[in-house]
Each structure stands twice: as structure tokens, then as C-alpha cells.
Amino acid sequence: PYENEALEMVKPHGFVMDFVGIFDKLERALAFDSDEVNAIVKDIGLLKALFKEMMEEKAPEYLRLIKHNFDDRDVDGLIEHFRDKDRRKTFFKEYKEIEMLYEIISPDAFLRPYLDDYTTLSAIYDVVRKAYTRTVYVDRAFLRKTNELVQRHIGARYVQPVQEFFEIKEETAEYISKTRGGESTRVINLIKSIEKTAEEQSTDPFLIALSERAQAVKEQFENRQISTQKALKTLLEAIEGDEKRKKEQEEKGLNAIEFFVLKTLEDEGVQSPEEILNDIRTAFKTYENWRNSEADLRELRKEVTFAILKVVDDIDRVTATVNRLFSLLQRGGKE
In the prediction, which pLDDT does 182 show? Predict the structure, then answer.
């Protein structure tokens, strides 16, 4: 489908025919039937009336949200205002209708009185879209004429606070306190930064778990189940916990998967977890293509099961432990 608003997967643009741009050719092509040309001109008149109505009745509700000439305070206010998914869905629908009308009508002197408000409305849409949606693929945010208008009159400075990615490391908490924007903007940027880091290091099970934790916080944040301050605190604590994990992992000289296996065995109360880890490490090296091969995955699971059975005489418990291990490991990306 073109869009899946329920999943907030929104394609940035689709096909639009520039009716106005082909009028001069159209009249020649239909010279033998001027009634058809007049009908199209009449339709454009109806579109203008609809554009005027939406800009005067729908747009002001959103334009009133901009109170500080579109500075960081306005960006943070927009993120806070559009936390509600239904509110965002309504806004996206109304904006896209207005944008489509603009693209069809432009260029036309009729639009001149609306340009400032339309540009601001487009900037509002861009901020909210970048903060909350997952685009289906990398593409332009706007249709062509709207994009030219926004770049010419506003530029991209208004979305910079919503596009700042943080490196997930020990100094993140200190760094984020010095960044532009309010707490809502920081929450969104932290979530996006965690997701980006997990995507780039998709074979690290701890980062996958951290990304899933960030998604859970995002859901609670959007549903107003937790405050902005609580969301920010929870995310920073999760990052701090992962930094402690990295240090302990480094001290033991293990990679992320090996350390994940060790911690899982410890959490399950398995005796001699480090000894079992040696056998499991060998299995991972033997079946190193397990992410891409079903056969290797089956053999690896079998070897891990046998390794744990050496010290745990309970097949149901071992099966549960192995399932827990591979449930998260298999959510990682392919190598």
C-alpha cells in the first residue's frame, strides 16, 4: 500500500500531475473542443476554493502552535503537542490534502496571500514527520514545489534539533544536557540514536534489547503513560546500564554474543556458566553461518542444548533457556 498510517510508515511523496503546467499544450490538443478545456479550468477553480477553505479553517489550528518564530522552543512544543497518534494522523491527513492542492494549483498568483502560512505549515509537518514516523525508504519529505518553497523561505534550520543523533557512550548523559532543544526533543533524539546504533551493530544482542527497550519507552511516551522527564530518565539509565555491560564484557575479553550467553546462563542460575560457555563458543565458531543457514542454526541450537544438559538435568528448563537465548539472537541482522 502507499501508506500504513497505523504503523506510521509514511512514504514522503507520490505521483502528482502538474495540470497547470500543461494547460498551454492541452488547449492546442483539444482545440476542436474548447468545452473540455473550460471544464478543467472550472475544476481548478473548485480546487482553489477548497485550498482557500482548508487554509482558513484547518491550518490556523496548527499555525497557532508556532509562538517563537520557529526556534527550539517551538520544535519541542510540536513534539509534545503531537505525542498523541490520533492527533498526528489527523494532521498528516489534512496537511497532505492541502499539499496536493498546492502542487496542482502552483504556480498561480492566487496562492500569494497563503504562501507564508503554507510554508510554516509545511515546516510543522516536516518536524512532526521526522520526529515520529519511520519512512518506508529514504526520499524527499515534500512534493517538489513545496520542497522548493520551504527551502527558499525557511531552509532546514527548523528540523536540526530533531535530526541530531547521539553516539551511545558513557558521556551521552552529559552531552545531551548541553544540546539544543527541550526535553521532548531529547527523548525523541535519544530513541532515534539508540535505534540507529542498534541497526548499525545489529549482531549485538544487548543493543537489540536496548533498542526494544527504547521502543517500549516511546510507546509509553506517546500514550502519555509516562512523563517526558521519566522517559528521558529511563532512557539515560538504560544507556548507563549498557555502558557498564560493555566494560564488564571487555574485562572478560568476550564478544557481545559470548557475553550475552554468559549473562543468560548466570541469570538462569546455571552452574559453571563459564565452563559451558567454552563449549558454546566452539559451537558458534563451527556453525558460524547460523544467521544465514537454517541447517547451521539447527545444529548450533542442538550443540548449545547438549552443552547446557551437561550440568542441568532438566530438559524443559534447558529448552526454555535455549529458546530465550536464540529468541533475541535471531532478532539481530544477518552478517
Answer: 83
